[in-house]
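dumping this here so i dont lose it again. seq + smiles for 2-acetamido-2-deoxy-beta-D-glucopyranose
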Amino acid sequence: MDLRSVIALFALITAQCARASPPNFVLLFADDLGYGDLGCFGHPSSLTPNLDRLAARGLRFTDFYVTSSVCSPSRAALLTGRYQTRSGIYPGVLYPGSKGGLPLNETTVAEVLKSKGYATAIMGKWHLGVGLNGTYLPTRQGFDSYLGIPYSHDQGPCQNLTCFPPDVKCYGFCDQGVVTVPLMFNENIKQQPADFLQLEKAYSEFASQFISVAVQNKHPFFLYYPSHHTHYPQYAGADYAGKSPRGPFGDSLMEFDGTVGKILQTLEETGVINNTLIFFTGDNGPELMRKSRGGNAGLMKCGKGTTYEGGMREPAIAYWPGSIQPGVTRALASSLDILPTFAKLAGAALPDVQLDGVDMTNILLNHGPSERQAIFYYPTNPSEKYSVFAVRWTNFKAHYYTQGAIHSQSTPDSNCSSLPLLHHDPPLLYNLEADPSEYYNLNSAEWDSVLKQIQAVKEHFEASMVFGESEIAKGRDSALEPCCIPNCTPKPECCHCTSAL
Ligand SMILES: *[C@@H]1O[C@H](CO)[C@@H](O)[C@H](O)[C@H]1NC(C)=O
Ligand SMILES: *[C@@H]1O[C@H](CO)[C@@H](O)[C@H](O)[C@H]1NC(C)=O
Ligand SMILES: *[C@@H]1O[C@H](CO)[C@@H](O)[C@H](O)[C@H]1NC(C)=O
Ligand SMILES: *[C@@H]1O[C@H](CO)[C@@H](O)[C@H](O)[C@H]1NC(C)=O
Ligand SMILES: *[C@@H]1O[C@H](CO)[C@@H](O)[C@H](O)[C@H]1NC(C)=O
């Protein structure tokens, strides 16, 4: 072989290796963020330049759904590719002293990727359980390392905590009678209460460190960043406080966007940006009861706590330069589809369980159609008796039951706040493509064949559903609340440790 053919052969092998090396994944998950909250989804005064850049140079989803309109169940489904009803993360959400958590025999996307040698890390809000001696922490579910508050940052008294510099106290009181929110590193408490003003900076540094080390060690990596932003109470450090025209919510969103920018910068500096798939979405719709301090569902009806579109349809963006062409997709997709998609791209085997997610790679890589035809909307307190409240099949959505929610109180639409459960027989039927705001119920006689089809899809789904034992119904024990001085008294006040990050 002459030198030229050796070089050509070498170039060929290098190119094939480059293609064959599995991509890195960064999964960004905002909190209580509505369909209408980002600049690139139409909000006039949100400043989200980094997310807007991902949307402009990546694929923006218009029809992306989560599986629940509250935190814990939505996160369980995201990480397992299975409805929360299977894993038992219902009704409602987990609390600091919850006895249960995401069962350890559930396979998370981190565990799937670890089987292919991925380095894995999570920073931010876990909210899938703490339990006795950290039984349910992310380090027990496939994540090599963790920095964050293991549940919502309003699940502890916040009236004395600082949310904006120099010392603006958090708005409201948050949950009383429990420990203040801890900041954990792996399974240890680093600070209690967590210092909100320094938190995002700590996350950016953690991300940068994690990515740099993985790249140095030539490991593919998975970084999961479920942010506390933009959940109540909003907070922001000195770099973002007062910087957004939208007020506290806007500052909090802008700080999240800033962390996204810093992650992008690290990916660029370490030279892996073109081999990294970044996926962004949020856990559920906006908490409208917070009024202008809550999010905005845009033209979607109602918000958090409901099975209307505003509760469960979320902004979503996929970005992977060179592999995902820029554009907009109307393909139907769900947070359930993340696990099968990442597994496919990593060449990892799917867990041997009943999955509800489908592979989205055809949408991502070819702007192709979805394998998914339906979305099922469980209420926040799912039961076998009532089953799913609504079904979307193609562009039609049928509501069998509707109910407003305390989380969605405050808008002029009384359907969002009215609490009695309404049964609809025949179901209310909306064409979401013609009427995304669910304003105009179609005449059921005229659309009988569509309703029959939806009913068949619903029954088929229900036949596959086996409810797992409720983890949340296992109850709480205040002795399980994370405390930095385990045996101190009197609790919860004595659980107080200040240390620099
Ligand atoms: C996990 O274990 C529980 C209790 O034994 C069982 O009911 C459930 O089906 C298991 N889940 C999976 C995903 O294997
Ligand atoms: C929990 O951890 C404590 C302190 O390390 C230990 O004394 C106790 O035995 C552990 N409990 C269980 C059930 O593992
Ligand atoms: C907040 O501070 C006030 C005044 O110092 C104090 O009385 C109160 O106990 C504190 N509350 C909490 C939950 O820390
Ligand atoms: C990523 O790909 C783009 C377009 O091909 C190229 O301009 C850029 O230099 C690449 N970046 C890295 C870090 O490889
Ligand atoms: C909204 O409220 C009105 C008035 O109570 C009721 O007639 C209608 O059925 C409700 N719509 C939905 C979708 O719940």
